[in-house]
Automatic annotation (TrEMBL), chains A, B:
Compositional bias ranges of the Polar residues kind: 45-55
GO BP term (any one): prolyl-tRNA aminoacylation
Protein name stated in the entry: proline--tRNA ligase
GO cellular component: aminoacyl-tRNA synthetase multienzyme complex; chloroplast stroma; mitochondrion
Reaction equation(s) it catalyzes: tRNA(Pro) + L-proline + ATP = L-prolyl-tRNA(Pro) + AMP + diphosphate
EC assignment: 6.1.1.15
C-alpha cells in the first residue's frame, strides 16, 4: 500500500455513467458552505473570514446527495470560495470540532512532510540540532519581555486546571517559544565556549485567532521554530540572514514560489525582535502572504531572562539571539500560488504523488495486459525514485479519474490503454498545460527512455510553475512615486513599490486609508537616489506595500 | 557541523591536568539532586519519585564549582539516582519550568529521531498515512465513552481561557486522541469502500501525572498514535496484532531490548479498549516497563461516536477499531536496559553517534598529521553511512574524552595517535567491553578493511547488547506454581511467571500484597495443562507478574 490513502471522497461515487462531467458535480464542499454562510460581505481591507463566533463548532456533515450540482467555484469568481473548495475536495484538511482548529488530512500532511524533509536537512547542514521544549509556559514568562507580552497576550490559550485542581499559576499553551527557550538557555550557557547554541524544534503552537482560515491562520498550527544564541551581534545578524536565505531558496526551488525577501518595517517587526526578515509571496488574488520570517532578537530576550556568558576577557555579557519559523501556512501559499479553476496544482518537488497512472480498458480480455503494463511502468518509475501511484479502481471511469487527479494537483498523468500495450508506449499528460497541448503520445515504456522523459517533464513543470508565478508577480507590482500612485496601485489590487522614509504614523495612515501595509523593504533595491513617496524627503530604500493575509 | 551539539557540559572544563579522573568529578547532576531532595525514602512497591509538589519548579541552577566531587552514582547503589545522573550528564534531557515537564535536549532528541525514522517507515509499509488532529478536544467528547472518561479524567489539563475570554466549554489538552479521531472518522466513513481507514500521527500529549520521572512519566510527552477503522472484528484484531509485532521487532532489532509481548489482563486493559496488547521490558533494576501498546478497541468508540458504515449488503454497521502507541518513554527503557556504572550504553542502530574519533598528540609537529588522519577516517566512515564524530577540542585531554564519550554511550571509539599515523592504522575500542579486552590495535585505515571492520563491530555490539539483556531477563524470571512462590519471586525483585485463571479481585489482591501486577499473558505459552497458581483451577495461560514503572 502506498503512503497516501484517499478514503472517503473517491468512494462516494459508485456510478460512473457520465464520466468526465460527473465527479465535479458530486464533490462535497464543507469549507465553502461554512465560510459563505458566515461571511456574506468581504471586506476590502483585510481577511474577514470568520468561521463561527461560537466556541465550538463541528464541521457540517458531508451530504453528497444534496451536493449534486456543486462544482469548484471558479477562481476568478470568488477566490476565497475557490480556496475552500480545493481544500475540501482535494482532501487536504477538514475542520476540527473546536472553532478555528483544523485536521490536516493525509494528502495535506504529505505536503507538510515534503516541506519538513527538505528544511530539516538544511537546518542540520547549517549546524542546528533538533530538540523539544515543553508547550506549557508559566504565564509570568510571557510578561518578562515588554513588547512580547503586548504582541501575544490577546491571543493566548490558558490552562488553568490540571489533574482536577485549579493551578496556582496559569499556564500558557505555547504561542512561540522564545521565553521558555531563554529560560533554558540561561541554565545551559556559561561561557563563550557554549556559543553559538543553535537549535530547532518541530512543534504545534496555539494562537487564539478570531479570524481563521484553513492553513493560513488557524488556532493551532504546526511549524518549526529555530532559536540561536551568539557571542556577537554580527554573528546573530549573519544567522538571521542565513535562515531567511534558506527559506527563500526553499520557496523558489521547492515550492516554485517567487517570494520577495526583505526586512520588515518597525511597525511590522515581530513582538520582541530588533529586526524581522520576511519572505512575502503573491497569492493568485494578488494579496501578500507572509510565508516565513527570521528575527534578529538582539539582546531583548537575553536581558529579560538574564541569559549571559563570560567572554574571552572574563566579562559577563548578554547573548545575541535569533529565531525563525515556517509553518503549515506555507501549504496555503502553495494552493493560492499555483491552483487554477481545475483545482490544486502542486510543484513536482513537493507533490506527494508526482505521477498518477491510469489504466484504460473496455473489454475483459484487455484488462490483464493493461494492468500488467501499468504495474511495470510503476515499478520502473518507483525504482528511479519517482513518487508514483496507480488508480486502478473499477468503480470509476478513466474520465472521472483524469478530473479527480487533476483536481488533486498531480503534476503528470500516464495513461495506458490496450493500444499502448501493443506498441510498448504510454500517453503522458501535464497538469499545468490543459488539454491536447499538454498531452504526448507514444512515449516508450523502456526504462532508459521513460525515466529520463518523466524526470525532464517534472523538471520542466517545476520551472514552468515558477516562471508563470514570477510573471504574474512582476506584472502585478507597480513602481510608484507618490501616495496617489500608491493608492491607485492598491485600488487595482496590485502591489506598490516605492521609496519610503516616512514615519510610523504615515505607515499606519496608509494602512488605514488603503488597507495595505509595508510587506518589506526588499533586499534587492534599485540604484540611485530616491525621494520618499509620502514626504518627498530623501529615502534610502523602496518598500513594498500590499494587502495581505 | 554535525547534527549533534553538546554545548554546555563539555565546555565547563578548561583545565585538563588530571585527565581521566577529572571529568567524572566535575559533572553536574541537577536531576539527581532534585529527586533525592524530595524523595528521602524509596517505596518497595512502586515508583515514588516525586519531583515536587508545588505547581512550578525550575530546575536547580547548574553550579559545577560546587559539584567537584560528584560522580555518577553506581547503578547497584541507587538505581534511580544512577538513572537521573545519566540523563543529566549525557545531556539527554532537563527539567522544564513547569513541574513534571521535560526539555528533550539534542542528544536525547536524536535518539527519538532514530526511533521515528524506523517506525515511520514501518507504518507506511503497513499501509498507514500520517496526518494531524487538533490537540484541543471538547470536554464533552471525553465523557462519551464510559471507561475512557473514568481512566483519563483525573489526569486532564484543561484550557478554560482563550483570547482573554472564559470559554463556554472547557477544552481538554489531548491525553490521547481516540475521541477526536472518532468524531472525524464519523464524517469521513460512509461505506465499506472507505475501509480500512489507517492513519498515524506524531504528536505531543499531556497527562497530569503526579509522580513524574524523566522520559518514563512526564506531564507532556511525545509519541505516535495509530488509529484504524475496519469493516470486521477479524481485521481489527489482525491489525492490533500486526502493530504489536512491529513494536516487538523494533524493540529486538533496533533497541536490543528483549521485550515480552502479550495480552494485558482485563484489569490492565486500556480505558476504552476490548483488548490491549503490550510489550514489556525488564529494566536493569528488574522492574517492568510497558514499552508500547496496541489496542483492539472493538466497537466501543464507534458506538459512542456513531461511527458507522454501509456494508456490502446495504446494512449500517459500527466500525471495528484499533489504536497503538510508542512514546519518548522508550528512551527511558533504553537507558535502563543497557546503561552501566560508566553511563549510557546505546544500541548502535539507534545511537546518534556510532563512532567517536579521538585524535591524540603531544608535540605541535604531530598535530597536523594526526588531525589529517582523523579527518580522512571520518570521511571514509561517513561515506559508508556510519554516524561518526570527531572530538578534536583542545581544552580536554584524550583521557577526559574517553570517559566523556563512554558516558554518552557511543558504541565505538577510534583513537589515532602519531604512531598510528605512521603505520596507517587506528585503535578501536568497544563501549560494551571495558578496558583492554575491548580494545584492538592496528586496524588499517584502508577503506576496504576499515569500513567492514567497523560495521562488523557495530553489528557485534548490537547483538551482544541484546544477548546480555536477554540473559539478564531470563535469569530474572521465575516460574511459579503457587502464590507463595509468586510472593517469593517478587520479594527477590524478580518477575514471576505462572498459570493464572483467577478473578480480577485476586489480581488486585496480588497487587496490594506484593506490589506486582500482571504485565501480560505472553504470546509464547508453555505447552500442557496448567493449574492456576492462586486457585488451583485449570488455567489456559501463564501470566507474568512484576513490579513496574
Amino acid at each position: 500500500m502506498g503512503a497516501l490513502r484517499l478514503p472517503s471522497l473517491t468512494s462516494l461515487f459508485t456510478s460512473s455513467s457520465s464520466a468526465a462531467a460527473l465527479p465535479r458535480r458530486h464533490l462535497h464542499l464543507p469549507f465553502r458552505r461554512l465560510y459563505t454562510a458566515n461571511c456574506s460581505a468581504q471586506s476590502s481591507t483585510a481577511e474577514k473570514e470568520i468561521s463561527s463566533t461560537s466556541e465550538l463548532e463541528g464541521p457540517p456533515k458531508l451530504k453528497p446527495q444534496q451536493d449534486k450540482d456543486r462544482v469548484i467555484t471558479p477562481r476568478s469568481q470568488d477566490f476565497n470560495a475557490w480556496y475552500l473548495d480545493i481544500i475540501a475536495n482535494a482532501e487536504l484538511a477538514d475542520y476540527g470540532p473546536v472553532r478555528g482548529t483544523m485536521v490536516i488530512r493525509p494528502y495535506g500532511y504529505a505536503i507538510w512532510e515534503a516541506i519538513q524533509d527538505y528544511l530539516n536537512a538544511k537546518f542540520k547542514e547549517t549546524g542546528h540540532s533538533n530538540m523539544y521544549f515543553p508547550q506549557f509556559i508559566p504565564y509570568s514568562f510571557i510578561e518578562k519581555e515588554a513588547s512580547h507580552v503586548e504582541g501575544f497576550s490577546p491571543e493566548l490559550a490558558l490552562v488553568t486546571i490540571g489533574g482536577g485542581k485549579e493551578l496556582e499559576e496559569k499556564l500558557v499553551v505555547r504561542p512561540t517559544s522564545e521565553t521558555i527557550v531563554n529560560h533554558m538557555f540561561t541554565q545551559w550557557i556559561h561561557s563563550y565556549r557554549d556559543l553559538p547554541l543553535m537549535i530547532n524544534q518541530w512543534a504545534n503552537v496555539t494562537r487564539w485567532e478570531m479570524r481563521t482560515k484553513p492553513f493560513v491562520r488557524t488556532l493551532e498550527f504546526l511549524w518549526q521554530e529555530g532559536h540561536t544564541a551568539h557571542a556577537t551581534p554580527e554573528e546573530a545578524e549573519m544567522e538571521a540572514l542565513q535562515m531567511i536565505d534558506v527559506y527563500t531558496k526553499f520557496a523558489y526551488e521547492q515550492a516554485a514560489i517567487p517570494v520577495i525577501a526583505g526586512r520588515k518595517s518597525k511597525v511590522e517587526t515581530f513582538a520582541g525582535a530588533s529586526k524581522t526578515y520576511t519572505i512575502e509571496a503573491m497569492m493568485g488574488d494578488r494579496k501578500a502572504l507572509q510565508a516565513g520570517t527570521s528575527h534578529n532578537l538582539g539582546q531583548n530576550f537575553s536581558r529579560a531572562f538574564g541569559t549571559q556568558f563570560t567572554d574571552e576577557n572574563g566579562q559577563r555579557e548578554h547573548v545575541w539571539q535569533t529565531s525563525w519559523a515556517i509553518s503549515t501556512r506555507f501549504i496555503g501559499g502553495i494552493i493560492m500560488t499555483h491552483g487554477d479553476d481545475t483545482g490544486l496544482m502542486l510543484p513536482p518537488k513537493l507533490a506527494p504523488v508526482q505521477v498518477i497512472i491510469i489504466p484504460i480498458w473496455k473489454k475483459a480480455d484487455e484488462r490483464t495486459g493493461v494492468l500488467n503494463a501499468t504495474t511495470s511502468v510503476k515499478e520502473i518509475l518507483e525504482a528511479a525514485g519517482i513518487k508514483v501511484k496507480i488508480d486502478d479502481s473499477e468503480q470509476r471511469t478513466p474520465g472521472w479519474k483524469f478530473n479527480f487527479w487533476e483536481m488533486k494537483g498531480v503534476p503528470l498523468r500516464i495513461e495506458i490503454g490496450p493500444r499502448d500495450v501493443s506498441s510498448g508506449s504510454v500517453v503522458v499528460s501535464r497538469r499545468d498545460i490543459p488539454g491536447k497541448q499538454g498531452k504526448v503520445f507514444g512515449i516508450s515504456t523502456e526504462s532508459s527512455s521513460l525515466v529520463p522523459y518523466v524526470k525532464d517533464k517534472l523538471d520542466e513543470i517545476q520551472s514552468s510553475l515558477l516562471g508563470v508565478a514570477t510573471s504574474f508577480r512582476d506584472s502585478n507590482i507597480m513602481d510608484v512615486c507618490s501616495y496617489a500612485e500608491l493608492k491607485e496601485a492598491i485600488a487595482q489590487g496590485k502591489w506598490a513599490r516605492g521609496p519610503w522614509s516616512a514615519s510610523d504614523n504615515d505607515e499606519l495612515k496608509v494602512k488605514e486609508e488603503t488597507g495595505a501595509t509595508i510587506r518589506c523593504f526588499p533586499f534587492e533595491q534599485p540604484q540611485g537616489s530616491k525621494k520618499c513617496l509620502m514626504t518627498g524627503n530623501p529615502a534610502d530604500e523602496v518598500a513594498i506595500f500590499a494587502k495581505s493575509y
